Amino acid sequence: MDPFTPKQCPPRTPNVLDFTQGSFSKDIAREALSLVPPMTNTSVVHDNACGTGAVTEAIVASSQKPGKLFATDLIPPFVASVEAKAHRNGWGFVKTATMDAMNLLGFESNFFTHSITNFCLQGLSDPSKGAKEIYRTVKPAAEGGVAIITTWATIVQGSAIQTASEATRGKGVALRIPWIKQKTTTEWLERHLKNAGFTSVEVIQQVGYTETEDLEKWCELMWAFLGIPSDGWTQKDETQWENAVKLIFELVQSNEDVELHEDGGARIRMLANIAIAKK
Fold first, then answer.
1. Residue 161 to residues 164, 194, 210: CA-CA distances in angstroms?
2. Is 36 in contact with 148 (CB distance < 8 Å)?
3. Which residues form the Methyltransferase type domain (predicted)?
4. 3 within domain boundaries
5. What's the half-sphere exposure (Cβ side, CA atoms, 13 Å) at 59?
6. Residue among 217, 151, 262, 241 at smallest CA distance from 19
7. For the whole model, what pTM was predicted?
8. Cα dist. 251→20, 52, 99, 163, 176 in Å?
């Protein structure tokens, strides 16, 4: 836990994550799942870095019923959210656990028939470790194994958050999840997966949209999620909070991928990289 958190910064709860990602994460998961062989009652599936369960929900909505589905995430409230959904909806095949995507030692090698990592790899402190764990835990293609890995190709808030950080803190302050344009390319994703050991990697791009009823609030929550420095928040961040959010809001409003609504909401266009990897 960080020693200091600005009073304006909301806790990282499932509701906050759902508000920021909207339907985009689930929509991309649904598209990605359509690119691989369907699941059967013998499939063993991993919803890796599951968040609030976008992948799990997309699987259930597609009427696919795997034999087992393990949903894991490093943040306990997210895991608890998926567990509650599974209990409430009678998804008896869903099991949950708190686990780091860079250290999946709770699973043996060659365990999963389907491994899905949805919008996580770019945010890891060591993406190579995450890719290697995906490779280790998925079955070989000859045994029906396939991995799906998605990353952001465009995110309207990325450069805005970097700009706000420099404007309120000065240059040279590293972010915990830095905005690095090279990480958004298909080449970056393919390279990490091949370096992990995958022999077959196909990457496509898919456009998606998300709606927010309050764009300014959306920008503030994005700052809360992605604006934290690598060394943690400071008292100055609390003092400069409103200035940072105002600048992000202004920059996002002027982005060509954002369609503004008169009521303060917006429709946001995003682009995803979808990799299908086999070993």
1. 5, 30, 19
2. yes
3. 47-140
4. no
5. 31
6. 217
7. 0.92
8. 17, 28, 35, 9, 21
